[in-house]
Amino acid sequence: MFLYILGLLLLWFAHRWFKESKRVSNKGDKHVYITGCDTGFGHLLAKHLDELGFRVIAGCYTEIGENELKKASSDRLTTLHLDVSDSVSVGQAAALIKTLVGEKGLWAVVNNAGISVPGAPTDWLTVEDYKGLLAINLVGVIDVTLSVLPLIKKARGRVVNVSSVFGRISLFGGPYSVSKYGVEAFTNCLRVNLAPFGVKVLCIEPGCFKTNVTDPQIWAKSVKEIWDRLPQDVKDDYGPDYLDNILQAVNARLKLLSDSDLMKVVGCMEHAIAAVYPRTRYSPGWDAKLIWLPLSYMPSFVTDALFLKFIPK
Ligand SMILES: NC(=O)c1ccc[n+]([C@@H]2O[C@H](COP(=O)([O-])OP(=O)(O)OC[C@H]3O[C@@H](n4cnc5c(N)ncnc54)[C@H](OP(=O)(O)O)[C@@H]3O)[C@@H](O)[C@H]2O)c1
Fold first, then answer.
1. What confidence tens digit (pLDDT) does each residue in 179-232 have?
2. What is the pLDDT of residue 173?
3. CA distance 233 to 230
4. Which helix (H) or strand (E) holds 57?
5. What is the distance between the alpha carbons of residues 159 and 197, in angstroms, rounded to a whole number?
6. Measured at the alpha carbon of residue 13, what is the angle toward residues 11 and 18, in degrees to the nearest 5?
7. pLDDT score at 269
8. Of 51, 234, 239, 275, whose CB neighbour count within 10 A is largest?
9. Helix or strand or coil: residue 264?
């Protein structure tokens, strides 16, 4: 009986491996639009897809980012300036993409651009802190997607949204998790809405990887600025040592958890774009698979107790 079950399992894994290893053809005819290509996953993905033969349209936030990417890629790759929080910029990018892709339409859009600060206990933040991050991480994703959706439908293509494990579980105050939960909800609706048109909508939920988003120095600078502007009564509620304790705790966790192999994430993004049968969700990173996803299925009293145990008092 045991051998029979083992055999069935092995057969199932072999079937899945074979199915998932198939890639789409005619990559040279397929345009892929990626946001946030200056650094991190977006930058690496743009170069990787370019090497594989796709026609990459790389949205960069800065001129330096555009120049770096142009230097490192073939002339198939096009860069454009893009601020996802600015609808005018998003619209201009979409108009240019329409002329580039022509009748074939756009094979894929990868909503990758994002930031992680400000992040701090909720009563340290203002609504403006929320609005600024949500404009990039959530409204930016929606705006960019809507701007190119007709082109994606024409190609019966794909929308790949970069969420996070913190779109499945929220651990620390601030707008980051709020934005990623929103990306998850948007992705889930879109997947169902677009299935009848032959469009696939996929979601990447990475754990912690070493990029600017998890840079302890960027994070510490932001938290210190927020602390400095706090009214004295809020500072008194937390006590004089709280800032140092929380900075140390976050620094230690980020060092322990952050994986420097960004190709684990880029490989999942490539699969979502290029596989004939992509997965609905990808969770790259050992911490995603072993810590955050299992925790996300636990009852709130368990996760609350764990988080309360680990955050400084
Ligand atoms: N690293 C992780 O552990 C992790 C985990 C889960 C999910 N993610 C997600 O992965 C995505 C990529 O982040 P990353 O880790 O690769 O960090 P990253 O290196 O900071 O990449 C984010 C990119 O977005 C760009 N960007 C920022 N604001 C923008 C705007 N308004 N318009 C257009 N582009 C903008 C940044 O440009 P500049 O560099 O010029 O500012 C940068 O190139 C993000 O959505 C992030 O939330 C990251």
1. 999 999 999 999 999 999 999 999 999 999 999 999 999 999 999 999 999 999
2. 80
3. 8
4. strand 55-60
5. 13
6. 95
7. 98
8. 275
9. helix
In the chain, the domains with their CATH numbers are 23-210+260-301 (3.40.50.720)
Does any ligand 1 atom lie closer than 6 A to the CB of residue 182? no
Q: Under DSSP, is residue 284 helix (H, G, I), strand (E, B) or coil?
A: coil
Alpha-helical segments (H) within the chain:
2-20, 40-52, 63-71, 87-101, 127-137, 139-155, 175-194, 216-228, 232-238, 242-257, 263-274, 286-287, 293-296, 300-310
Residue 312: pLDDT over 80? no
* CA dihedral of 116, 87, 37, 275, whole degrees rounded to 10: 100
CA–CA separation, 183 and 41 (whole Å): 17
User: Which residue is it, tokens 């299992």?
Assistant: 294
Instruction: Give the residue whose CA is nearest to atom 16 of ligand 1.
Output: 40
Positive or negative, the CA dihedral 254, 257, 260, 261 is: negative
Computed over every residue of the chain, the mean pLDDT equals 95
Q: Is 282 a catalytic residue?
A: no
Q: What is the pLDDT of residues 279-304, one digit of tens each?
A: 999 999 999 999 999 999 999 999 99
